From TrEMBL:
The protein, known as: Pectin acetylesterase
Chief location bin: secreted
A Pfam family annotated for this UniProt entry: PAE
Coiled-coil positions: none
Organism per entry: Vicia faba (Broad bean)
Length: 293
């Protein structure tokens, strides 16, 4: 029995070629060998990226008419870092765009007032020599670690970009807002595992974190080439699974799934700027429950 009708019904991309690049370098394919300095550690993410692109171009991608570079989490950050380069590699007449899923990491302080994520980025950028892969326009204005944040990268991207992002991104809650060691009294123990366990005070903190995300992306609202699907789900990546990408019970905003929204944007059917109301208003969300793991 053919199931092609399902693909045609739920995804505009059903007959596209798909290439999955395994992530392993620790710096979103932006590390440089000059930073190795005889340590025995290898930081060659940028070279890995270039090698993979050359291979794909040699086996047919150089003739592509449409292309979408996408990635989730650190892969979403890699998508933003390499988006313009990807555009330059493909034919001038091709439609080339980028989609970052849960890759919009915030430069926010944790619940103790520490700049945990900023400090982490400083270490990664210094360790792997990431600055050579970042936009020169940004580097001329601020230190390299700040230019590693998605908001600064997006300011300099010329290629159309779509942001898929949960307003209650569990990875960012676990690692930016309430990182390990920041909750000695374990007030956040249950809340970090299941958003339904958060009391009113903790939800206020989570909603402030959501507000920081919306304030940051608001800067890009006027750019028609930037699309957004920011739902109010407690999840991280949403484009990798059928359940959250294009199934009948996928998360929706204004009755549009992520796949439908991305397709509307990619094929220029309409400008897409979908931002959900606060938790728990969206019953279509796939909220993860780590207490069951």
């Amino acid at each position: 029995m053919s199931l092609s009708w399902i693909c045609q019904t739920y995804s505009d991309f059903f007959n596209w070629n798909k290439v999955k690049i395994r992530y392993c370098d620790g710096a979103s394919f932006a590390g440089h060998p000059e930073s190795e300095k005889g340590s025995g550690l290898f930081f060659r993410g940028q070279i890995i990226w270039e090698t993979i692109m050359n291979e794909l171009l040699s086996i047919g991608m150089s003739k592509a008419k449409k292309a979408l570079l996408t990635g989730c989490s650190a892969g979403g950050l890699a998508t933003l870092i390499h988006c313009d380069n990807f555009r330059q590699l493909l034919p001038k007449g091709a439609t080339v765009k980028c989609l970052a899923d849960a890759g919009f990491f915030l430069n926010e302080k944790d619940i103790l007032g520490n700049s945990t994520m900023k400090s982490f980025y400083q270490d990664v950028v210094q360790l792997q020599g990431v600055a050579k892969s970042l936009h020169k326009e940004c580097l001329a204005k601020m230190e390299p670690s700040k230019c590693f944040f998605s908001s600064e990268i997006l300011k300099n991207i010329k290629t159309p970009v779509f942001l898929v992002h949960p307003a209650y991104d569990f990875w960012q809650i676990h690692n930016i807002l309430v990182p390990q060691g920041s909750d000695p009294h374990r007030r956040w123990k249950s809340c970090r595992l299941n958003i339904q366990s958060c009391d009113a005070n903790l939800m206020d903190t989570l909603n402030n974190f959501r507000s920081s995300l919306l304030k940051t992306v608001n800067e890009f609202q006027q750019r028609k080439d930037i699309g957004m699907f920011i739902d109010s789900c407690f999840i991280h990546c949403q484009t990798l699974m059928e359940e959250t990408w294009f199934s009948p019970n996928s998360p929706k905003i204004n009755d549009k799934t992520i796949a439908e929204s991305v397709a509307d944007w990619f094929f220029d059917r309409q400008v897409v700027k979908l931002i959900d109301c606060p938790y728990p208003c969206n019953p279509t969300c796939h909220n993860l429950d780590f207490a069951r793991v």
